[in-house]
Amino acid sequence: MPALPFIFLLLTVISGGGIAYFVGGAAVLAFITEDQARFLAALPQRVMGQLNVFAFLAMPLFILTGELMNRGGVTEALIKFSMSIMGRFKGGLGHVNILTSVFFAGVSGSATADAAALGNTLVPAMEKEGYSRNYAAAITAASSIIGPIIPPSVILIFYGALMNTSVVALFAGGIVPGLLLAAVLMVINAVIAHREGHPGGRGAEVPAFFPALLQALPALSLPVIIMSGILMGFMTPAEAAGVAAVAALLVGRFYGRLGLRDVIISLQRTVVLTGAVFIILVAIATFGYLMSIERIPQALVAWVEAMNLGKMEYLLLLNVIFLIAGMLMDVKAALALLGPLLIPPAIILGVDPTHMGILIGFNLTVGLLTPPLGGVLLILATVLKMNYWRLVRAVLPFLLAELVLLAALILVPDLTLALPRYLGLVN
């Protein structure tokens, strides 16, 4: 393929334009320079065929659910309930931060939503109790990436639709890795808490368990509604997302924090975010159409075979590529741009598509903690008005632990696949 489309791509990336425009523009330019312009007549039909996927319907509904919950007073109820469980341990508020992210993951499925919500609430509370702002922000950032791993997860829906993989199997596959991530972060927090003398331990004042549980029950019911309906076969992911959006509206009204203005803002945000996702999908579908015409995936498979890369070697290489992409690009953009090109050879080599989806989702969300463009770090640094590079330094112990867990998930597929197999969702 000639260099002109890639030069155009590079220049538009440097200019700061939207990814949909520079990917789509480069793809159309490549059609022309490759003397394949006649195929552009079929492009609209091809693109609409790729976007006409039922699983995509769940994405805007889960985005709406997260928006409603963020504005509905859910965060405070989840924090209080988490405090009633973990507040009595050394470094208790750090554990509360992680546990709240686990509960929040079952509601929003978004790392950035988690980071923004907890950054405004738990970080000031931790500072008040004697934690440094850098540490409080770092553990908030590290725990926020639990959101896209534990279902419902927008990134897993995106992967499932893009790679024609069962979203139900992906949701089941994300549960154990998400809980393992929470456990690993709690171990790191406990070690640092004892070393640095963080607050907590015996005699710490914590909320009463049962009153906190009663207050949090409406919020905790959402993950149960979503996952029980999906995993037991009562609802498709799209139907569960619709039920969750209605339940989120009712829960917000129950807490008395969700007015008409909040609902309107949530709908507006959902429309904007959904539009941003789908315009990227249109651009990537254009790029993918060209790749299929030029037989790039087949050439890539031949290259892998010529390099004599086995399943594990290619899987490790793939994760390094996606890790670098996650440092520099938006999560969905990186998946949409690289996934259709790099993932099929892994499937041909024998990697389970569900295992692949969890690895890529985990990998790309770790990129949200990685400079130079770690999205979660940028959000927290902005929300908390703190130095970005100090936050990067503080998050390093958690980031290293998450990379070790990623390596374990790569080497031991059963950590991901045991639950989907038990439920009969994968072979």
UniProtKB/TrEMBL annotation:
Gene Ontology CC terms: plasma membrane
GO MF terms held by the record: transmembrane transporter activity
Transmembrane segments: 6-31, 51-69, 98-123, 135-162, 168-192, 213-234, 240-258, 270-292, 312-329, 357-384, 391-412
Any Pfam family the entry gives: DctM
Segments forming domain TRAP C4-dicarboxylate transport system permease DctM subunit: 7-414
Alphabetical list of InterPro entries matching this protein: DctM, TRAP_DctM
Top-level lineage group: Bacteria
Record keyword Transmembrane present: yes
Keyword annotations of the record: Cell inner membrane, Cell membrane, Membrane, Transmembrane, Transmembrane helix, Transport
Main subcellular localisation: membrane
Subcellular location: Cell inner membrane
Topology term for the membrane: Multi-pass membrane protein
PANTHER family: SIALIC ACID TRAP TRANSPORTER PERMEASE PROTEIN SIAT-RELATED (PTHR33362), TRAP TRANSPORTER LARGE PERMEASE PROTEIN (PTHR33362:SF2)
Family according to the record: Belongs to the TRAP transporter large permease family.
Free-text function comment from the UniProt entry: Part of the tripartite ATP-independent periplasmic (TRAP) transport system.
Self-association state and partner proteins as the record states: The complex comprises the extracytoplasmic solute receptor protein and the two transmembrane proteins.
Protein name: TRAP transporter large permease protein
